[in-house]
Specification:
mainly alpha, 10 helices, 71% helix
Length: 284
């Protein structure tokens, strides 16, 4: 977009989106945080309150995206927005990335930890029969659908237009980390034993990788949902952190491996941008 004198205008930062997403999620999570520190006495136990509040609060990014899409594009726009998560036309090479890369990275992190004398937590599933039901549960209720329509389907599109893909992915990853911060103040959230600095590195790197698969498939929201689901799923299949971890080394390996992939993506993106710029200059 340009002004009348052809001066480029930077797209607006989606402040409203983040305010609504954070406001919805954090307000739902607040009772569990207060109860965890004894400030209130909830009518149900924390064993029930914490997972229930996490489940409901996770809808904040989706709720925010739907509210703003409805305001900007009406009912038809909202319907079209939701259809973006139902695009099953995914090239085979990207399916291999979606389902293979998270497994490769998580398995490699555990292997590196064992090679260096670490003792990672035991494998998460004792029976192969638990794999598919667990993946479906994570896909539907573990965060991917509730979050990815908003993070990638709404926020990333607008942030990329302003900052470019890599910077947008990094910034969104930092915001994504901040959104999860209340989990460290909830008893039974599952984040016990998870070092926040390593989690931040992991989440920012993962954000860049998801942006890559999302853009590479024509901004297919379903791809972002599936990759997010796989990243969560293999964190149970090959646990690298949590209450049973003897140290955080395996988790650090996981974060560094995702960072390595993110750096490779960044280098390739910069080269493609430079090549495109050079080509355009030749034709001016």
């Amino acid at each position: 977009m340009t002004t009348q004198n052809n001066t480029p205008v930077r797209p607006a930062f989606p402040w409203a989106y983040f305010l609504i997403a954070f406001g919805f999620s954090w307000s739902v999570w607040l009772p569990a945080m207060l109860a965890s520190y004894g400030f209130i006495t909830p009518p149900i136990s924390l064993d029930i309150l914490t997972p229930l509040s996490i489940l409901v609060g996770a809808f904040g990014p989706l709720v925010s995206a739907l509210i703003l899409t409805s305001r900007e594009a009406g009912k038809a726009g909202r319907r079209q927005f939701l259809k973006r998560g139902l695009n099953f036309r995914i090239p085979l090479r990207w399916l291999a990335v979606i389902f293979g890369l998270p497994i490769l990275i998580s398995a490699s992190a555990r292997y590196l930890d064992i090679l260096t004398g670490g003792t990672p937590p035991p494998y998460g599933y004792s029976s192969p029969l638990a794999l598919l039901p667990t993946f479906i549960f994570i896909l539907l209720l573990g965060g991917p659908i509730q979050e990815e329509y908003g993070w990638r389907g709404y926020a990333l599109d607008r942030m990329q237009a302003r900052f470019g893909t890599i910077k947008a992915g990094i910034l969104l990853g930092a915001i994504w980390t901040l959104w999860h911060l209340p989990f460290w103040f909830m008893t039974g959230s599952g984040m016990e034993g998870t070092p926040l600095p390593i989690y931040t590195l992991y989440t920012i790197s993962l954000s860049v990788v998801i942006a890559w698969v999302y853009n590479g498939t024509g901004k297919n929201v379903l791809v972002a949902i599936l990759f997010h689901a796989m990243a969560n799923f293999v964190s149970n299949l090959f646990p690298t952190h949590g209450p049973e971890a003897s140290d955080s080394r395996a988790y650090l390996f996981l974060a560094v491996l995702y960072l390595t992939v993110a750096l490779i993506i960044s280098v390739r993106s910069n080269r493609q941008t430079a090549a495109a710029t050079e080509l355009s200059l030749q034709y001016e």
